[in-house]
Automatic annotation (TrEMBL):
Pfam families per record: PhzC-PhzF, QVR
Key words of the record: Glycoprotein, Isomerase, Signal
Sequence intervals crossing the membrane: none
GO CC terms, sorted: cytoplasm
UniProt-recorded Gene Ontology molecular function terms: isomerase activity
Stated name of the protein: Uncharacterized protein
Source organism of this protein record: Blomia tropicalis
InterPro entries: Phenazine_PhzF-like, QVR-like
An example Gene Ontology biological process: regulation of synaptic transmission, cholinergic
Length: 396
């Protein structure tokens, strides 16, 4: 976080406060020289007697609830105050904090390929209601990534597990499940506190998810399995329209589509293409996204998976895939964790393979996923890396 410095003993900080830019130096992190410099800061600690060595220099941004007056405070602190949302009192007045730390994390990366995987924005909150849902949606729209994930209510049990609330937003709407954003959030949390072994998430939609990290720092998500069922073009008039919008002209469709499956629980349609020309047939697809979005599927489809069998010995993976979801504001998602809750049970049956399946989503960024089906659950594994972190200012 910009403006935060941590050391093991008492530190020295610039301290100031400014209302409505009365002290411009207090606002500017690059020119704080006019502020007061406090050496060897010591601060009180809640429910304790005396003062204690400060560990952080912090900058707090807020707005007075009664008048809308802007406030900036630079101070010594015992806490980093990474999550600066919610109300606080300063000199007898109530202010609302308006500063949030965020991370951009690439999930399901290929360890050997820079700038691979699917980027997600991660925002950590003390409480889910620190910012309202419309603000969450606006933040997601501002990031304009396929997903922005908000995590809150961090509580640890006696076994070292941590329970959290997790919510996912595309640039246009909230969604019920997102694998890559969950991987991204989990990576941040594991990096922040290495002693935590397991993360348990509760969702707004009643799901319970679990994430662990192994010794190689590979993250493992445990999701409900979403087994698809086979359907035929003649069952629904919109299937032909949708396939044409993705694949192209009819002669190619006749020779390239092996079968069509649909997952009711995820509203994902799965199209399997013929295994020829390596992955070129799949990577060369250029869907008509405007046409796709206009097709009326009676609410049955919110995303389309295109998949193809690979040669495990030659290609190193069992299958390839791509994922399109213009209905959720995402023309093509680089790597889609939730799609593998459909793909894993599908390919397990198609390949008669009960072990671990290796997959590659062949978007322009590409990403690697390892998945295993267990009863009615799917284990989805992959690596992640933090691309950047910073601070966003929230004005509600």
């Amino acid at each position: 976080m910009a403006g935060v410095r941590k050391v093991s003993s008492s530190i020295s900080c610039f301290i100031c406060d400014s209302r409505n830019w009365t002290d411009s130096n207090c606002h500017d992190p690059f020119h704080p020289a006019m502020s007061k410099y406090a050496e060897n800061c010591k601060v009180p600690k809640q429910n304790h007697i005396g003062v204690f060595p400060a560990r952080f220099c912090v900058k707090v941004i807020g707005r007075k609830i009664s008048t809308g007056e802007d406030l900036v405070i630079r101070a010594c602190s015992l806490e980093s105050m990474d999550n600066q949302c919610g109300n606080f009192k300063f000199e007898g007045e109530i202010y609302k904090m308006q500063q949030l730390q965020f991370y951009i994390v690439d999930a399901f990366v290929d360890p050997d390929k820079p700038f691979s995987g699917n980027p997600a924005a991660v925002v950590l909150l003390d409480n889910d209601d620190d910012i309202d849902d419309s603000t969450k949606q606006n933040i997601a729209g501002q990031f304009n990534l396929s997903e922005t994930v908000f995590v809150s209510k961090l509580n640890r049990d006696q076994n070292g597990s941590r329970s959290l609330m997790i919510r996912w937003f595309t640039p246009t709407n909230e969604v019920e499940l997102c694998g890559h954003a969950t991987i991204a959030a989990s990576y941040v949390l594991f990096e922040r506190e290495r002693s935590v072994r397991t993360l348990v998430y509760e969702t707004k939609f009643g799901q319970r998810l679990e994430c662990t990290m192994d010794g190689e720092r590979r993250l493992n998500l445990n999701f409900p399995s979403n087994d698809p069922v086979q359907i035929e073009c003649k069952q629904y008039r919109w299937i032909d329209q949708l396939v044409h919008a993705i694949i192209g002209e009819l002669p190619m469709i006749d020779t390239s589509i092996v079968n069509i499956y649909w997952s009711e629980s995820t509203k994902k349609l799965l199209l399997r293409m013929e295994s020829k020309d390596g992955q070129l047939m799949l990577t060369n697809l250029k869907p008509d996204f405007h046409r796709l979005k206009e097709i009326d599927t009676d609410g049955m489809v919110r995303g389309v998976i295109i998949t193809q069998k690979a040669d495990r010995q030659r290609d190193g993976v069992h299958f390839w895939s791509r994922y399109f979801s213009p209905w959720n504001g995402i023309n093509e998602d680089p790597v889609t964790g939730s799609s593998f809750t459909v793909l894993a049970p599908y390919w397990r049956k198609q390949l008669n393979e009960n072990g671990t399946l290796y997959a590659k989503q062949v978007s322009s960024r590409s990403g690697l996923v390892r998945c295993t089906t267990m009863d009615n659950r799917v284990s989805i594994e992959g690596f992640a890396r933090i691309f950047c972190l910073g601070t966003c200012h929230v004005y509600e």
